[in-house]
Task: structure prediction
Amino acid sequence: MKVNNLSYPSLVILAWSKAIEGNKELQNWLQENGYLELWMSAQAIRLHDPARKWLMDNGYPELMALISAAEGNQKAQKWLQQFGYDILYHIAMSVEHENDSWLWLRKHTNPELIILAKTIQIVKDRIEDNHNDIHAIHKDL
Result:
């Protein structure tokens, strides 16, 4: 399995956050400027299976593990830790409302990663709320 190196400038991480929120202009910008994996991960967060498959097939298992871990998948959480993806692990656990991971992010990372974690948390919580609402079953964002 090919694993790519993840290292992005702060403004790209912020653009990724906005793309996850649904900003179409920034989704297009990511696609057109060499960040297809970030655009695909924004789609995968919203439960789009082709994007999830693309991440795995194109060498981004760490992004798919981040998403799965943020959905409570303990195997993905352990995988991130085992392979040294501490930042991605703590982003995922922050999305899962783990206070210790929020504290870890504040101590060890930059503010844009905290913004990213909060953005993913908001989107995932909305998806979960929609899945639990009988009036909005499977009405993903």
